[in-house]
Design brief:
The chain has 737 residues and is mainly α. 62% of the residues lie in helices and 5% in strands. Belongs to the anoctamin family.
Length: 737
């Protein structure tokens, strides 16, 4: 039965005898034969070559990578090697075998000599168990069989699902907290004093929102918007932002413990990726010389300049989105549709968010190509180094792609637009956007909600639907041929390998980046969930719901729709852990900035404890935020409008020359900043420094307080070492006196 198990299948088109492609194919297969590989050929619409490596290769691997201290004592080389390790070794040898023309398998695939090479899904109990217990929607809330996943897909895939499961489990607590904050905002804060003042401001006339065709408007017209804003922007959100900064640290510290527990029995603590790669190179070619460590400052400088150039391009795209929003707002305010005119700013934000999502889809492809090109420029020494360099670059590019626009909305929108009579303009024509009198945080909320919902619905549907459709189409295309095999080629149809190889070939090809893409998607989601959570407390809930489906979606794809992934060995999630730790620090900075700059939390607190009736009049029977809205508005004289501004008709019942208002802290005579502006600026700065220092201290304390490795795991290793040393002593013969 073992003789009929094949490690890999190579697929090729049927080429003419004597053609260049046929000769190249024969040369490659001859090289494999010289290394002792058994090769079986099956002909259908295409040529299928099953390859099986000789036992000697695996014996060499076992000998080279066993514990160095036990090499001298043990000579037992007959132990079975795991299927995942077997596939990994054969994959390495296939892709590093050189033909006499100095071509590798990758070059032959590019030249259409071979179409593809893949390991086989085996019709065994393990795969059927994973189908039944893991890759099913009904198991949504069940624990994953990590050990079984490892036995079938290897340690790297198992660690991904262990990490994703643990992340989703802890997200549940953050999701409950975010939901409580949001519900509390709806029930308690929608009737806050600040939003009540906006709703009752029937006599407060505001400056036009654009230069042409925009009317004066009453502050009370934005009553609903104000209630929504104060539903998000409240004291509860501040507490939740602090909670999420601590949660991010606790999550990573607990993951380190969880990972230590998961890999305890995998015997990987002494495993070294570089050593394994060297061993495989020697098994493949005994004359192989290792690449020396090198560093080129010239290459590093070029790569750094190109990375900065790419980041500048991505920030430029964010600027283009800003320009779109500015122009869209101007066009919507002049629309003949009343709905568009009344909600011009909100419509510009929503359409801008959709456009941002489209740019994310396009730039993701471009970012990958640029990151790969930069990695090739660096020419890393090992596969693991290449993967680490690529990870850092692609994450950096993706981070700026996803967050540049959000950073503008959070920290610049409404703060660099000037004031009536002296607006900052794009190309001297279009005014930059302004914040609503109740703050900019709702704009950030809308942008994040749209992007997260689109990413978690459309992207996930496409991620599963496209492979499913491809699989069905490939299967349908082979049906007629199958019938002809049964009718006219009964000898071949009876070959037990043929149906297995064909069914595996019909599955979708596994991209080299498929697992990497899953990790990247989750780390970007983690960034959304932590960095701007102060503006969008529902982010953890959306992420939690998405991940419940994501686990089963990925499982179903790997088991049912894709060819078997080449197993990779790993003892942790690699450089992704450092990326997650960096995101955790960015989360502290981001949330501190959102509360200090974007939110109205600080201005309201400054007003309450400095300028409110409670402080000035010593009144205790009124809400301390009474009068805040009027205090946060500045006055503007109509005669100071810019010459090209078309001053609209006055609202009925108000004098033509009455003073109009806008949101800022400026003097009425020369429009310079007031003392209150500088008070608030100082308070924002003080809060930011305090928040970040406290949050970072708590993170450090949490990291110290929670050990990376549980004591039970340490004791297990202690017992194992003790037991091994006792066994070693038995080999020492007693000395004769």
């Amino acid at each position: 039965q073992d003789e009929e198990k094949w490690d890999f299948v190579l697929v090729s088109d049927i080429h003419e005898m004597g053609s260049e492609k046929e000769i190249k194919r024969k040369k490659f297969l001859d090289e494999l034969s010289k290394k002792g590989f058994a090769i079986k050929k099956i002909e259908d619409k295409k040529l299928f070559y099953g390859v099986r490596a000789p036992k000697l290769i695996f014996q060499k691997y076992q000998w080279l990578l066993r514990n160095p201290d036990s090499r001298l004592q043990s000579h037992d080389m007959d132990g079975d090697i795991p299927v995942t390790t077997r596939i990994r070794i054969v994959y390495f040898i296939l892709h590093n075998t050189l033909t006499p023309d100095l071509e590798k398998l990758r070059d032959l695939v590019k030249k259409k000599v071979f179409e593809v090479a893949f390991p086989l899904h085996e019709q065994e109990e393990l795969r059927e168990m994973l189908k039944e217990k893991w890759a099913r929607w009904r198991d949504l809330f069940c624990q994953q069989p990590i050990e079984k996943i490892r036995c079938y897909f290897g340690e790297k895939v198992a660690l991904y699902f262990a990490w994703l499961g643990w992340y989703t489990y802890l997200l549940g607590f953050a999701a409950v907290g975010g939901l409580l904050v949001f519900v509390t905002g709806i029930t308690v804060f929608s009737s806050s004093q600040v939003s009540r003042e906006i709703c009752e401001a029937n006599n407060t006339i505001m400056c036009p929102l654009c230069d042409q065709k925009c009317p004066f408007w009453l502050l009370s017209d934005t009553c609903t918007y104000a209630k929504v804003t104060h539903m998000i922007d409240n004291e509860g959100t501040v507490l939740f932002a602090i909670f999420m900064a601590i949660w991010a640290t606790v999550f990573l510290e607990l993951w380190k413990r969880q990972r230590a527990t998961v890999v305890t029995n995998w015997d990987l603590y002494g495993w070294d990726e570089d050593e394994e790669e060297l061993a495989l190179q020697l098994i493949n070619n005994l004359q192989h010389e290792p690449r020396r460590y090198q560093h080129s400052y010239w290459h590093s400088t070029i790569v750094l300049v190109l990375v900065l150039l790419m980041i500048a391009v991505l920030i430029g795209i964010a600027h283009a989105l800003v320009i779109y929003r500015v122009i869209a707002t101007a066009l919507f305010t002049q629309s003949s549709l009343e709905l568009l005119r009344e909600h011009a700013n909100t419509m510009a934000v929503m359409t801008g968010a959709v456009l941002h999502y489209i740019t994310i889809l396009i730039m993701t492809r471009i970012n990958r190509r640029v990151a790969l090109y930069l990695c090739d420029l660096e020419n890393p020494r090992t596969i693991s180094q290449h993967e680490n360099n690529f990870t850092v670059k692609i994450f950096t590019f993706q981070f700026f792609t996803h967050f540049s626009s959000l950073i503008y909305i959070a920290f610049f929108l409404g703060r660099i637009n000037g004031h009536p009579g002296n607006y900052v303009r794009i190309a001297g024509k279009w005014r930059l956007e302004e914040c609503h009198p109740s703050g900019c945080i709702t704009d950030l909320f809308i942008q994040m909600a749209v992007i997260m919902l689109l990413k978690q619905t459309i992207s996930n549907v496409i991620e599963y639907l496209i492979p499913w459709i491809r699989y069905k189409l490939r299967k349908e295309n082979r049906q007629p041929k199958k019938r002809s095999i049964i009718l006219g080629e009964e000898e071949e149809a009876e070959d037990p390998c043929k149906s297995q190889w064909l069914s595996n070939y019909q599955l979708n090809e596994v991209e080299i980046f498929s697992l990497f893409d899953e990790f990247l998607e989750m780390v970007i989601q983690y960034s959304f969930t932590t960095i701007f959570v102060a503006a969008f407390p529902l982010a953890p809930l959306l992420a939690f719901c998405n991940n419940l489906f994501e686990i089963r979606l990925d499982a179903s794809k790997m088991i049912r729709l894709q060819r078997r992934m080449v197993p990779r060995k790993a003892k942790d999630i690699g450089i992704w852990l450092q990326v997650l730790e960096a995101v955790g620090i960015l989360a502290v900075i981001g949330n501190g900035l959102v509360i200090a700059i974007t939110s109205d939390f600080i201005p309201v607190q400054v007003y309450k404890y400095t300028y409110s009736p409670c402080m000035v009049l010593n009144s205790t029977d009124v809400d301390c935020s009474t009068g805040y809205i009027n205090h946060s508005l500045s006055v503007f004289r109509i005669q100071d409008f810019e010459p090209h501004t078309k001053v609209p008709e006055m609202l009925p019942g108000f004098a033509r020359d009455s003073i109009k208002e806008y949101r800022d802290y400026r003097n009425a005579d020369d429009y310079s900043y007031t003392v209150q502006f500088w008070h608030i600026f100082a308070a924002r700065l003080a809060f930011l420094i305090l928040f970040e220092h406290v949050a970072l201290c708590v993170k450090l304390i949490a990291a110290w307080y929670i050990p990376d490795v549980p004591q039970s795991v340490k004791n297990q290793f202690l017992d194992r070492k003790h037991s091994n040393l006792r066994k070693e002593l038995r080999w020492v013969m007693p000395q004769k006196v």
